[in-house]
TrEMBL record, chain A:
<dbReference type="GO" id="GO:0032993">
    <property type="term" value="C:protein-DNA complex"/>
</dbReference>
<keyword id="KW-0597">Phosphoprotein</keyword>
<feature type="domain" description="OmpR/PhoB-type">
    <location>
        <begin position="128"/>
        <end position="226"/>
    </location>
</feature>
<dbReference type="GO" id="GO:0000976">
    <property type="term" value="F:transcription cis-regulatory region binding"/>
</dbReference>
<dbReference type="InterPro" id="IPR039420">
    <property type="entry name" value="WalR-like"/>
</dbReference>
<keyword id="KW-0238">DNA-binding</keyword>
<dbReference type="Pfam" id="PF00486">
    <property type="entry name" value="Trans_reg_C"/>
</dbReference>
<dbReference type="GO" id="GO:0005829">
    <property type="term" value="C:cytosol"/>
</dbReference>
<dbReference type="InterPro" id="IPR036388">
    <property type="entry name" value="WH-like_DNA-bd_sf"/>
</dbReference>
TrEMBL record, chain B:
<keyword id="KW-1133">Transmembrane helix</keyword>
<dbReference type="InterPro" id="IPR036097">
    <property type="entry name" value="HisK_dim/P_sf"/>
</dbReference>
<dbReference type="GO" id="GO:0000155">
    <property type="term" value="F:phosphorelay sensor kinase activity"/>
</dbReference>
<feature type="domain" description="Histidine kinase">
    <location>
        <begin position="279"/>
        <end position="497"/>
    </location>
</feature>
<feature type="transmembrane region" description="Helical">
    <location>
        <begin position="100"/>
        <end position="119"/>
    </location>
</feature>
<keyword id="KW-0418">Kinase</keyword>
<keyword id="KW-0902">Two-component regulatory system</keyword>
<dbReference type="InterPro" id="IPR052023">
    <property type="entry name" value="Histidine_kinase_KdpD"/>
</dbReference>
<feature type="transmembrane region" description="Helical">
    <location>
        <begin position="47"/>
        <end position="80"/>
    </location>
</feature>
Length: 228, 502
């Protein structure tokens, strides 16, 4: 199996100096782009398996780079952002980024996100028909949801939300995407979403007040834990 | 100050002064009329002589006002009776026929005199009110540009003493007590009057040669204005009250602009705090991320990382910690400089000695760049804050390292120019675009670089500028340098005055 090829777009030499040797040690092949322009050039020339994109590049904003990527490629993108870039981060996720990590991060966290994003992509190509994690199982063709073998009865809307989350298991799904999945693209009131997430948790979590399957990403969206 | 106070005291205006002047004037005008009437009477006839007297009375009225007119009319009546009415040279009247002309003459003299006097008084009143009005205008014009209390007082002084025999003293409440602003006060009576005005709402209040007006603003009692009147008539009440209102407004405005300035200073401090906090969140995160990623990688891949890579990660952690440490010092010193605290920590430093210590510390970060030192033979001494001096030079040298390629040279020249120690740091790096040469000294300003380079805190040169200026020196940037590339940062610090060894 050839090594997965990862594009690291980051203008901070100190961070690149860490990521490159460590990710190479972990078995990835790394290409580094230090600004938006060279990132674009690299994307046009090579088909990457994953892009790590640091927001706040000197020459181009992450969102327009994402738009460029999404024009002709379905490569998973993980955004690296600082807390003060919240708005930019959400915009990037809405624009099609798969996930994000906040600075500072630990390498394990970053690599888990990378694995989830890569897995989802390879699965979505094969159209996975089931989700299974933490006792929760979803059979997409029959819309059957079970928790430790027991059938869970969900309303159609609850199921739509759960399916949207499960299709991107392990990755954050923004409020906007979840609202679009449940109520259509023009819905904006996250209040509905909170209510339905609450109902879902009542049905699938051991302790709905301390969820361990369906996690909240404050201000951004929700995350269903990844498989395996 | 004492002399000035004395100059400003007044004598009581004398109530009789006016009528004495009127009597003198009446005499001066009526006596010639009398002589002419006596000596020319045989030729002119009594009617003409009487008309001469009336003319005299009119002149008196016109020149001296009502008092002079009445005095002249009385004198004319007596003289007419004495010299012109039979029997001549006596106040007796011989025939009833003579009474009517005498009475008519007196009536004419009085009426003509009074009319002339009233005309005169009107003209004078008009003149006065014109003067008062124009000086009100002038004062209000100069008050417009008076934003501080002393300016208000001096505007008041200039205009009032120029055109009136009146002085105004401004008393303002400061911290609950009065303090006489600029134009020092009169005497105890005046001060007492002001105190009374402060205690009661009555305004104006008069006593002796003084009139006091309260100055009230929306915020409450601001102070009082005390008018002291000289020998002539005081300006009228309407004038003083209008003036007091103007002053009250000006005082209120001065107070507002003062508190406004305070608020602005506060806002600037807030702004700095916000900027510092955003700098912390922005600039601390990158080194922290590198440290966190390196350390967690070392834990996670302990066995799989090759020793050289592990070594590099560890070195990276150390250098990022160093970077964090410098950021912290920069932030701390920046806020210290802004608060003006650096002056207290000055000491005399030998420049050459300090520089070599600094270069030693910076050298590990320079990798293959050569740091070439050229020191003056003299031992130059400067009187500065040692911690800041150190930080500033480390910042400038770090910039030279960061923005130049490995293998180039960095020159550090220390020399003397008159009473200044001149420190020049020049590199062979990317240089600074001409438009940015001034702005690089602004807080949080960073030059937009075409190629990615490590981003500093945007504080280094701002601190350098703050430091040199606080020490009485100058700092400048030039780019390109002598070799046609790179940047030259020149720091000039005043040499310490040689203290003889004890």
């Amino acid at each position: 199996m050839t090594a997965l090829h990862i594009l690291v777009v980051d203008d901070e030499p100190s961070l690149v100096d860490v990521l490159q040797p460590v990710l190479e040690t972990a078995g990835y092949r790394i290409t580094v782009a230090q600004d938006g322009r060279s990132a674009q050039a690299a994307i046009e020339a090579i088909e990457f398996d994953l892009i790590l994109l640091d927001l706040g590049l000197p020459d181009i904003d992450g969102k327009s780079l994402l738009q460029r990527v999404r024009l002709d490629q379905d490569v998973p993108v993980i955004v690296i952002s600082a807390r003060h870039q919240e708005a930019e981060k959400i915009a990037a996720l809405d624009e099609g980024a798969d996930d994000y990590v906040n600075k500072p991060f630990e390498i394990g966290e970053l690599m888990a996100r990378m694995r989830a994003a890569i897995r989802r992509h390879s699965l979505s190509r094969a159209e996975a028909s089931t989700y299974r994690a933490g006792g929760l199982a979803i059979d997409f063709p029959t819309r059957r949801v079970t928790l430790s073998g027991e059938t869970v009865k969900l309303s159609p809307k609850e199921y739509d939300l759960l399916q949207t989350l499960a299709r991107r298991a392990g990755q954050v799904v923004t409020h906007k995407r979840l609202l679009a999945a449940g109520w259509g693209a023009e819905a904006t009131d996250t209040q509905y979403l909170r209510v339905y997430i609450g109902l879902l948790r009542q049905k699938i979590e051991q302790d709905p007040s301390d969820p361990c399957l369906l996690l909240t990403e404050p201000g951004v969206g929700y995350r269903l834990i990844g498989t395996g | 100050m004492i002399d000035r106070k004395h100059q400003r005291t007044f004598s009581q205006p004398r109530a009789g002064a006016l009528s004495w002047r009127a009597a003198l004037l009446a005499g001066a005008v009526v006596l010639p009329s009398w002589f002419i009437a006596i000596y020319a009477q045989p030729g002119l006839g009594r009617v003409a002589a009487a008309l001469l007297f009336v003319l005299g009375v009119v002149i008196c009225g016109a020149l001296g006002g009502l008092g002079a007119a009445l005095a002249a009319a009385t004198a004319a009546f007596l003289l007419y009776n004495f010299y012109l009415v039979e029997p001549v040279l006596s106040f007796e009247i011989s025939t009833g026929r003579d009474v009517i002309p005498l009475l008519l003459f007196s009536l004419c003299a009085v009426v003509a005199g009074v009319l002339a006097a009233r005309l005169k008084d009107r003209a004078r009143a008009a003149d006065d009110s014109y003067r008062q009005l124009s000086s009100l205008l002038e004062i209000s014009r100069s008050l417009q540009s008076a934003v501080r209390v002393p300016d208000i007082a001096s505007a008041l002084d200039d205009h009032l003493s120029g055109s009136f025999d009146t002085l105004a003293t401004l008393f303002l409440v400061r911290d609950g007590t009065f303090d006489a602003a600029v134009n020092g006060p009169s005497d105890d009576i005046g001060l007492q009057l002001v105190r009374k005005a402060a205690d009661s709402e009555d305004s104006p209040r008069e006593e002796g040669p003084y009139t006091v007006y309260r100055l009230d603003s929306a915020a409450g009692f601001e102070g009082a204005i005390l008018f002291g009147h000289g020998l002539s008539r005081p300006p009228d009440k309407a004038f003083m009250s209008a003036l007091a209102n103007l002053i009250a407004l000006a005082v209120e405005r001065a107070a507002l602009s003062e508190s406004n300035a305070e608020r602005r200073a506060q806002a600037r401090t807030e702004e700095l705090k916000t900027a510092l906090i955003s700098s912390v969140s922005h600039d601390f995160r990158t080194p922290l991320t590198a440290i966190s990623a390196s350390a967690s990688s070392l834990i996670e891949f302990r066995d799989r990382l090759d020793p050289a890579a592990a070594e590099r990660l560890l070195r990276g952690i150390v250098s990022e910690c160093d970077r964090l440490n410098r950021y912290t010092s920069n932030l701390l010193e920046m806020s210290r400089l802004e608060a003006g605290q650096s002056l207290a920590r000055r000491q005399t430093l030998g420049v050459a000695d300090t520089m070599s210590a600094i270069v030693q510390r910076v050298r590990p970060r320079a990798s293959h760049r050569r740091i070439v030192r050229r020191m003056s033979d003299e031992d130059l001494l400067v009187n500065v804050d040692a911690a800041l001096f150190d930080l500033v030079l480390v910042n400038v040298l770090d910039n030279a390292i960061i923005y130049s390629d490995d293998g180039t040279s960095i020159h550090l020249d220390v020399g003397r120019d008159g009473d200044f120690c001149v420190i020049c740091v020049s590199d062979e790096g990317q240089g600074i675009p001409p438009d940015d040469l001034e702005r690089v000294f602004t807080r949080f300003y960073r030059v937009a670089r075409p190629r990615p380079s490590p981003r500093g805190s945007g504080l280094g040169l701002a601190i350098a500028k703050g430091f040199t200026e606080a020490a009485g020196g100058r700092i400048g940037a030039a780019s390109p340098g002598p070799g046609g590339r790179g940047t030259v940062i020149t720091i000039m610090l005043p040499l310490a005055t040689e203290s003889s060894p004890a």
